[in-house]
Amino acid sequence: MSPLEIGPFNLAPLLPLVLLGLGGLALLLVDAFLPATRPRIGFAATAFLVAALAFTAGATHGDAPFPGMLLADACTRFFDCLLIGAALVTALLSLDYLDELQRGEYWALLLFATAGMMIVVHAANFLTVFLGLETLSLALYVLTGFRRGRERAVEAALKYFFLGAFAAAFLVYGMALIYGTTGTLEIGSLAVRIASGRPPALALAGLALLLVGLAFKVSAVPFHMWTPDVYEAAPTPIVGFMSVATKAAAFAALLRILVVGLTPLSAGWTSVAAALAFLSMLTGNFVALSQRSLKRMLAFSSIAHAGYILVGIAAWGAGGKEAVLFYLAAYGLMNLGAFAVLSSLERQGEGILLYDLSGLAKRRPWTAAAMALFMLSLAGVPATAGFVGKFYLFYAAVQAGWVKLALFAVVYSAVAAYYYLRVIVVMYMHAPPKAVADGDAAPVLPVPEFAPPRLAATLVLALTAAGVLVFGLLPSPLLDWVNSAAQSLAR
Question: Is the pTM of the predicted complex or chain greater than 0.85?
Answer without folding.
Answer: yes
